[in-house]
Amino acid sequence: MIDRIRQYDKVIESTSSIIRTLKIYPKVFEKEEHKYLHVFFDKNLYNALCLLDLIIGLKYLDISQAIGNQLEANYFARIVAHSSYEILDDLNKLLGKETRAYIIDKYEAS
Questions:
Q1: List of E strands, the chain
Q2: What is the C-alpha separation between 9 and 3, in angstroms, rounded?
Q3: How far apart are CA 40 and CA 2, in angstroms?
């Protein structure tokens, strides 16, 4: 169990590092010609935050089940299920027609 918790912690730290990096990019790409990239960094940041929510929820679900605390295991299972539903529900908005059209326009322009 300790090894599994360490693995969760490694993934959590790695994802946190990605989030910190993604928060920096809008400051790095502040020229007007790079403003279009901000939308993609925002979408990636949202994805990374969702991933972090799921990982943490799964970690504590796993721990609760391992120690036999079914009440907490049920709670974390609901949190993970609810988060998963919200992520999937937001997916169309996140990667909707607007994003696809923008990528196609940029690709055809180059």
A1: none
A2: 10
A3: 37
